[in-house]
Amino acid sequence: MNQQNTPLRVGILFSKTGVTSGIESSQLRGTLLAIEEINDDGGIDGREVLPVYYDPGSTPSTYKTLAEKLLVEDGVRVILGCYMSSERKAVLPVVERLNGLLFYPTLYEGFEYSRNIIYTGAAPNQNSVQLAEHMMREYGSRVYMVGSDYIYPYESNRIMSDLLLERGGEKLGERYVNLSSDPSSFIDVVNDIKAKRPDFIFSTVVGQSTAAFYRAYADVGLDPARMPIASLTTSETELQEMESGIATGHITASTYFQSIDNDVNRRCVAKVKQRFGENTVTDMCWEAAYFQTYLLASALSVVGSDNIQQLVSTLRGMEFLAPQGIVKIDADNHHAYLTPRIGRVRADGQFDILHEAKQPVKPDPYLVEHSLDDWSARVTLTHS
């Protein structure tokens, strides 16, 4: 078989089991939908994209083992995968040592660069800065922080603390819970929140424990109109895992919401529901997984192979019209230009978009330049 007819094999590592299986399954759906569309449209210059998939079970050490298996035994050069930062950090030395390329479709804490990773989720200057500005303006500067017990929440809380403290904010508490926590694990936390009465709660709780936290919040009678949970990670997928209406009124900062009203997003959402079921939702991590697959396909088409050095060179500066709008890979830091938005949860588990930037924001993963007063490009879409 000549190379022209040989499938292009691509590794995929998202979890269908374990504590973050809900959101990672959404990322898997985004990836597979894009691959199906690409293949239906003729593949990469006539070559089929062949996914080589493993389920790492939401376990960082398994991610490392399977990344090595993909690159060494399966002969793939490119991996699409990882949700938690602990998963990415387990895979990073593998792709660097074996000269693979990881596409990482998840918002994260920043302060990282690898020539072997393309980062398509939001950096802190594309969500944390905007969330801090919105919450301090609308609710106040006294915050209580709650996160899952791993690196992303630690670092995100550090960044949020710096953003708030530089404006005279006050941190009233900072607590961490196990990734598999149930509502009872949050009893002490929500009682402490109720006693200290912050202006808002900054949550970096992820995975299955997200629903447990919002349930515990509601159980003690806290009011999102006065003291909302503000999150970077609570998306449509986590909301679907909750009881109906339990999170209404809470706030999320994201570069994508399913409720974005444009032609590309409407078409994609319709395809998701047709392919995976009418009740299937999309979310920020789904969208990044979807558009990064198209970026890879475009680079493969230009290069004609999966040569990593040539792919990376081609990806630098590449643009794509994604469901959120235009995205572009920054040539200097391998992160993506994205459009920040602030959303408020509706009773139906979707978001009203309160603010969005007028244009994509250049990624600044090291927060070299930022100011809470600089998000002047925001557009108020709804009031109250």
Sequence-ordered SSE layout with sheet pairings:
Blueprint: E1 8-13, H1 21-40, E2 49-54, H2 60-73, E3 78-81, H3 85-97, E4 101-104, E5 117-119, H4 128-138, E6 142-148, H5 151-165, E7 170-177, H6 187-196, E8 200-204, H7 209-219, E9 229-231, H8 236-240, E10 251-254, H9 263-276, H10 284-303, H11 308-315, E11 319-322, E12 325-329, E13 336-337, E14 341-345, E15 351-357, E16 378-380
Parallel strand pairs: 1-2, 1-3, 3-4, 4-5, 6-7, 6-8, 8-9, 9-10
Antiparallel strand pairs: 10-14, 11-12, 12-13, 14-15, 15-16
Helix pairs in contact: 1-10, 2-3, 4-5, 10-11
Counting DSSP E segments of at least 2 residues, the number of strands comes to 16
Tally of individual domains: 2
Shape descriptor reads globular
Task: Report, as a whole number of angstroms, the end-to-end distance.
Answer: 63 Å
The proportion of strand residues reads 15-25%
Structural class: alpha/beta
Quaternary structure classification? single chain
Q: Helix and strand succession? A: EHEHEHEEHEHEHEHEHEHHHEEEEEE
Mean pLDDT value: 93
| CATH-scheme architecture of the largest domain | 3-Layer(aba) Sandwich
